[in-house]
Amino acid sequence: MRIAIVGAGAMGSLVAGRLAAAVGKPGIHPDSAVDGVVLYGRPSAHLDAIRGNGLTIVERSGASRAIPVSATTEAADVEGCDVVVVLVKAWASAEAAAPLRPYLTRDTVVITLQNGLGNASALRSALLRDGVRPHVYLGVTTQGAMRTEPGVIVHTGSGITALGRRTNPVNTQLRDIANAMTSSGLQTVAVDDIHRWVWRKLAVNAAINPLTALAGVENSVISTDPGLRAAAEAVAREVVAVGKATGVKIDLKEVLAAIDDVARATGDNRSSMLVDVETGTPTEIDAINGAVVSEARRHAIKVPANQLMTALVRAREGRYQADPGGDGDLDTGAIA
C-alpha cells in the first residue's frame, strides 16, 4: 500500500513520519503493509529540512529520532498512491486537492482527517474529472502534534483515529487502511457510525478552539476556569442539539467528558486556532462553529453561543461581516 499525505503541517508530518517508519515492516494483514509514503505540501523551510535531514519526531517522553520521509511540492509525485490522506486546513481543501486531480484514479481512496464539516464535499468537487473521481471517505483523529522548528515536530498527545464511509458499511479496503495506520503506531479503527465520530470531534473543537483563541490561553484552562468551562458547555450543548437534528446519535455527557479529557491531555498545547489568530493565518472557524450555525439554520434551531464564537473569531481575524442569513439575536446570556 502506497500512501500520500497532503499537508505538511504538524499533523500531516506526524502521520507521514509514523507511516514512513513502518515502510517495509509486516502489517497486521498482508494487504495492510505500507510500501511507500510521500508527504506533499507547499514549498516551505519545513519541507526543505525534511528533505535534507529527515523528519524529527519528539515523543512525549522526550526521546526523539529522525525518520527519512519522501517530501515533495510536486503533485505528480502522488501518482500511483493507493491512499491519499488529507490534513490541510479546512479552508484550503479545494486548493490543495485540485493539483492532484490528474494523478488520481477512480480506485484511489482519499481520506479527510481535517477539522470541521464540509471537507469531504469540497474534496469530491475538487477531484471530479470528466465525471470520474476517487473514493472520498471520512475520518477524524484525536492525535496531537506541534511543529517547533523546520523539520521537527512534537507528538503532544496520543489518541485514536476513526475512518468510515459516508453511507455504506465499512469495507475490506478501509479495514486494511486502518490496520496499516495502527501498525505504524497510530491507533485507528474503521467504523460504521463515522458521522457520530465527526460530530463528537466537531463539538470538542467548537468548544475548545474559539475560546482558547479569544482568551489567549492554553487548552488546559478550558477545564479549570469556571467561566470558560461554562462557555464550552454552552457551545457543546448547541452542537449536540444540531447533530441530533441531522440524525446523528450523539450524547452530551460523552461530549462534555471528551472536552475535559482533551483539555487535560493536551494541557500545555496552544490550539491551532489560537496560533492562527496570533500569526495572522486564516482560522477554521467557518468549518467548525460557522458550520454549526449554518446547519442549525437549516433545522430552525437557535445557536447563540456558536453564533457569538463565529462572529468574535471573524472579528479577531479582521474579517467580521454581518450575517445576512442570521436573525441577529446573539443571546449572550446563553453562555453565562
Could you characterize the architecture of this molecule?
The protein is of the alpha/beta class and 336 residues long. It has 2 domains: 2-192, NAD(P)-binding Rossmann-like Domain (Rossmann fold); 195-335, N-(1-d-carboxylethyl)-l-norvaline Dehydrogenase, domain 2 (Orthogonal Bundle), CATH 1.10.1040. The chain is built from 12 helices and 12 strands. The strands form 2 sheets. Strands 5-2-1-6-7-8-11-12 form an 8-stranded mixed sheet, with helices on both faces. Strands 4-3-10-9 form a 4-stranded mixed sheet. Mean pLDDT is 91; it is low at 320-336.
**Relative helix content:** 40-55%
Strand order of the largest sheet: 5-2-1-6-7-8-11-12
One letter per element, helices H and strands E, the order comes to: EHEHEEEEHEHEEEEHEHHHHHHH
CATH top level class name of the largest domain? Alpha Beta
Largest sheet: 8 strands, mixed
- What's the Cα radius of gyration? 19 Å
- The CATH H-level superfamily of the largest domain is NAD(P)-binding Rossmann-like Domain
What does the overall shape look like? Answer: globular
Total discrete domains: 2
How much is the average pLDDT? 91
